[in-house]
């Protein structure tokens, strides 16, 4: 059969065209490379990566590789301690990690104690010094340093065999470069030389920098198939809330799309009957696999205690009052009538400043006592 007969329509057989979604090859390729870095708390690993009935027990659980995980909470709640526990778990299993700090330096003595405890519990023959060699430490002193390291990555960063990247914290340098909206508007109102376009650019530059940082973190996690753990600080939000609420500093649409897993840390307030509850911390998984979870679910909340050589899981503990008690009723405040102009005191002739606010003679004496 010559070439002409081979290409003729009479000799060709029709073959059906099979269609499949374009995301199927990507999901199949990532399924072959599933991996995770343990947090050192088995119950928290189960809350982050719950196993179905079809999955085997050998599947690794914890901070998922190839994605970005965010940990946020109020100051002193244990965000850095949790990150140190994750790094220790990664180094103990032979993984390599990178630690980037933007403020306080890496607590080396604390990490050494955690590694020493991990070696003793696992019975490994490796020493702490051998495990610490797999950790690379960077110091980003300012926001430009952090962006230059992550957005304009130098040659060889991160190394190809890196499994974990910790940023403590990503939101730390932002307040010094981007003040709050009220302060920024006050500064812009005092300057009359700026045009409207420049003012709008100054108001939006914080969101633009956050978007660039979020996109680069997602790119690094996916291309290098490593777990990225980002620590995010908190700020108080009042506008649009029924009460003062702690919210992450870094937020917005691009940042939300960047976060695959979100963990919030908070502590219990001690009561008079139980003074031991002041040391209890709670880790709640609020976002898993890119999907928001219902708040205050008992299966997503893990109680732990911070010790000098790591975190210890609490099997039996008093439940958090937020979970144990009934939801607090939100009382609607009565709408107060705005005062007319003639009702507003323009001087101190009206002697009502101290009595109306409950000040009594001698109340301010305790403010200067040691």
Automatic annotation (TrEMBL):
<keyword id="KW-0234">DNA repair</keyword>
<feature type="compositionally biased region" description="Acidic residues">
    <location>
        <begin position="344"/>
        <end position="358"/>
    </location>
</feature>
<feature type="compositionally biased region" description="Basic and acidic residues">
    <location>
        <begin position="328"/>
        <end position="343"/>
    </location>
</feature>
<keyword id="KW-0067">ATP-binding</keyword>
<dbReference type="GO" id="GO:0016787">
    <property type="term" value="F:hydrolase activity"/>
</dbReference>
<dbReference type="InterPro" id="IPR013632">
    <property type="entry name" value="Rad51_C"/>
</dbReference>
<keyword id="KW-0227">DNA damage</keyword>
<dbReference type="Pfam" id="PF08423">
    <property type="entry name" value="Rad51"/>
</dbReference>
<feature type="region of interest" description="Disordered">
    <location>
        <begin position="316"/>
        <end position="370"/>
    </location>
</feature>
<feature type="domain" description="RecA family profile 1">
    <location>
        <begin position="33"/>
        <end position="234"/>
    </location>
</feature>
<dbReference type="InterPro" id="IPR020588">
    <property type="entry name" value="RecA_ATP-bd"/>
</dbReference>
<feature type="compositionally biased region" description="Polar residues">
    <location>
        <begin position="1"/>
        <end position="14"/>
    </location>
</feature>
<dbReference type="InterPro" id="IPR052093">
    <property type="entry name" value="HR_Repair_Mediator"/>
</dbReference>
<keyword id="KW-0539">Nucleus</keyword>
<keyword id="KW-0547">Nucleotide-binding</keyword>
<protein>
    <recommendedName>
        <fullName>DNA repair protein RAD51 homolog 3</fullName>
    </recommendedName>
</protein>
<keyword id="KW-0378">Hydrolase</keyword>
<feature type="region of interest" description="Disordered">
    <location>
        <begin position="1"/>
        <end position="22"/>
    </location>
</feature>
<dbReference type="InterPro" id="IPR027417">
    <property type="entry name" value="P-loop_NTPase"/>
</dbReference>
<feature type="compositionally biased region" description="Low complexity">
    <location>
        <begin position="359"/>
        <end position="370"/>
    </location>
</feature>
């Amino acid at each position: 059969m010559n070439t002409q007969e081979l290409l003729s329509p009479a000799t060709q057989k029709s073959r059906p065209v099979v269609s499949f979604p374009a995301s199927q090859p990507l999901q199949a390729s990532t399924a072959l490379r599933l991996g995770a870095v343990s947090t050192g708390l088995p119950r928290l690993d189960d809350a982050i990566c719950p196993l179905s009935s079809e999955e085997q027990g050998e599947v690794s659980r914890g901070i998922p590789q190839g994605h970005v995980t965010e940990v946020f909470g109020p100051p002193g709640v244990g965000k850095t301690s949790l990150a140190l526990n994750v790094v220790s778990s990664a180094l103990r299993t032979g993984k390599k990690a990178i630690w980037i700090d933007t403020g306080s330096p890496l607590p080396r003595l604390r990490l050494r104690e955690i590694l020493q405890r991990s070696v003793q519990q696992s019975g490994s023959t490796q020493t702490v010094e051998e495990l610490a060699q797999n950790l690379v430490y960077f110091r980003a002193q300012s926001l430009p340093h952090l962006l230059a390291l992550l957005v304009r990555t130098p040659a060889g960063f991160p190394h190809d065999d890196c499994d974990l990247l910790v940023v403590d914290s990503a939101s730390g340098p932002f307040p010094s470069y981007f003040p709050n909206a009220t302060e920024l508007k006050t500064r812009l109102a005092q300057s009359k030389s700026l045009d409207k376009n420049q003012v709008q650019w100054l108001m939006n530059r914080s969101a633009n920098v956050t978007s660039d940082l979020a996109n680069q973190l997602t790119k690094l996690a996916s291309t290098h198939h490593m777990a990225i753990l980002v620590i995010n600080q908190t700020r108080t939000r009042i506008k649009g809330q029924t009460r003062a609420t702690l919210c992450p500093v870094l937020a917005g649409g691009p940042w939300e799309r960047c976060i695959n897993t979100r963990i919030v840390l908070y502590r219990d307030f001690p009561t008079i009957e139980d003074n031991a509850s002041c040391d209890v911390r709670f880790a709640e998984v609020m976002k898993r696999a890119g999907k928001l979870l219902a708040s205050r679910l008992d299966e997503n909340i893990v109680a732990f205690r911070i010790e000098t050589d790591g975190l210890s899981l609490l099997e039996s503990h008093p439940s958090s009052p937020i979970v144990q008690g009934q939801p607090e009723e939100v009382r609607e405040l009565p709408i107060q009538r705005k005062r007319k102009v003639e009702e507003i005191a323009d001087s101190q002739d009206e002697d009502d400043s101290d009595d109306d606010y409950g000040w009594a003679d001698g109340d301010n004496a305790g403010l200067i006592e040691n």
